[in-house]
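Hi R.,

Here are the chain sequences for the assembly we discussed:
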Amino acid sequence: MNLLPFAQWCEASTIGNAIRTSTWAFAVIESVHLLALAAIGGAVLVVDLRMLGLGLSESRVRDLARDAFPWLVASLVVMLVTGVGLFLSEATKCYYSTPFWVKMTSLALAMTFTFTVRRWVTLADEGRVGPLAHKAVALVSLALWFGVGAGGRWIGFSA
Amino acid sequence: MSLLPFCQWLADTPGSMALHESLYMYPLVESAHVLTLCVFVGVAATFDLRLLGITLRNVPVTDIKRRLGPWMSAGFVVMVITGALLFYAIPVRSYQNIFFRVKVVMLIAAGLNAFVFHSNVDRRVAEWDRDPVPPRAARRAGAASLLLWAVIIVCGRMIAYNWFDCDKQPQRHIVNVAEGCVVDERAPEGGPR
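And here is the predicted structure of the full complex:
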């Protein structure tokens, strides 16, 4: 399956064209993308640090995860919507960008992991999940999201 | 007094040139700067939202400060060091960039906001530590912090764009003044500056 024609179609689409030809659109969308990065960072870190025993260790993992979940989902939605806009405006560049594919792979894994294993583990009844499992889940989550962030930043550096 | 000569001197130092022209070092420093957003602003926003009574309402404010404070501080230190390095790599253009200047002003405002918070309502934190919704002064500090850091992030991202750069003349007079561009505005378009 060759995705290049799809990327070209994206770039030629009305939205892709509008964002690319505008002076401000890309910069503004990118700024919102960054604001959501900070928000999702907080929502992920508060829970992952707790599982590592490094953050709010007086609070229960489940309570923190419940509180952080709406923020995680909301910032992720903003990330995805703005991210699609950014992608549409330079889809063929992304197609040829290794960091872009690293980011998309990490993103698919991070989202799958976050909404399955990590969610089950963080919402499990107390005592059912040991500290070692908590630590492992937190480390995997942090590693995957780091891959998304680092890949994303590196798209901008590749010529 | 203008800081421009200092920035020009800084730009000519070997370290600045090496960082500016490096293939990987500059991108790495910039990546660290951006990704540390998650640690610093992410955690700071969590604290601000707690001050606003929006999230973690059942967690005492002092718990959050004691447990997440070190992460916030560590993130802040990385932000300052990497940010200083980014400025060091491109001093003159940054100094004359409108978004950089707004960012610096907002950073000072954020510092003042934090100082006022710590020297006033935070001193009486024992009285409202467990309140789901903290007192008005604390909420105001949280809201101001969220807003200021949002503006700082946006300005930081916008520094990369050259819409208002001094070497793109003619610019509006007010832009040239705000950025401290050294330019003869009477010169015809494309003329010497």
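The two ends of chain A are 25 Å apart (CA to CA). Residues 35 and 75 of chain A are 9 Å apart (CA to CA).

Let me know if anything looks off.

Best,
T.
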